[in-house]
Amino acid sequence: MDCNLCSLEPEFFNQFNLIITANLPQTCLCSLSSYCASRNTPLIAVRSYGLIGSLRLQLSPNYHFVIDNKDDSQKMHDLRLTNPFPELIEYCESFDLPSLPSNLHSHVPYVVILYQANKALQNEVSFFFFLSSLCHR
């Protein structure tokens, strides 16, 4: 987006009910923010820096906020590891974690690691071998 668009043609933004920007320079964002505030148009400004990002939300005072404060920390997610279905067993056992190269190890789904660790824990000796093979990468 051209930074002069807001100063040269602010009518362009009149057709939108919501404006979303991504990695807009700060000077441009400030002028667009003031224009949106004067028109009571919501503005969402997103900026990303590799794996880190930020989101800025600007709403008019006429909006009503509802915050859901339910505590979901007590909710348990069932990964079906205690009673896995046959397809899950086949999928989890298709990974050979000790011989997997370290660059591919980070792509293994977490449920596979948990399944194999649980299976290795049933035999304590193989569990320690399992842990040491993961740690020596």
Radius of gyration: 26 Å
Indicate the overall shape: elongated
Strand content: 5-15%
Q: State the separation between the terminal residues, measured CA to CA.
A: 45 Å
Summarize the structure.
By secondary structure, the chain is α+β, with helices and mostly antiparallel strands.
Essential attributes:
137 residues, alpha+beta, 3-stranded mixed sheet, 6 helices, 3 strands, 39% helix, 13% strand
Describe this structure in words.
Helices cover 39% and strands 13% of the residues. The mean pLDDT is 80. It is elongated and about 70 Å long. The two termini are 45 Å apart. It has helices at 5-8, 26-39, 86-93, 102-105, 110-121, 124-135; strands spanning 19-22, 43-49, 52-58. It has a three-stranded mixed β-sheet with strand order 1-2-3, with helices on one face. Strand 1, helix 2 (26-39) and strand 2 form a beta-alpha-beta unit.
Give the topology.
Layout: H1 5-8, E1 19-22, H2 26-39, E2 43-49, E3 52-58, H3 86-93, H4 102-105, H5 110-121, H6 124-135
Helix pairs in contact: 3-5, 5-6
